[in-house]
Design a protein that fits this description.
single chain, 64 residues, alpha+beta, three-stranded antiparallel beta sheet, 1 helix, 38% strand
């Protein structure tokens, strides 16, 4: 399992992604980063949230 750290802007644009916890398999780690970067647009933050960016942790599990 790869744990990724994402930064997403208020409008839903990906501002950054990094591996927060390595899986032990470099190919899986890179595949997780590529998968997140392929997302064109995340959902915009709900009205009432005003920070420029929000931080999320996402666990990605690969199965054979």
């Amino acid at each position: 399992m790869v744990t990724a750290h994402l930064m997403v802007t208020l409008s839903g644009q990906l501002a950054g992604v990094s591996v927060a916890r390595l899986s032990g398999n470099a190919a899986c780690d890179q595949a997780a980063l590529r998968a997140v970067r392929r997302v064109v647009q995340f959902t915009a933050a709900p009205a009432g949230l005003t920070n420029a960016r929000y931080s999320f942790v996402l666990s990605i599990r690969f199965a054979r």
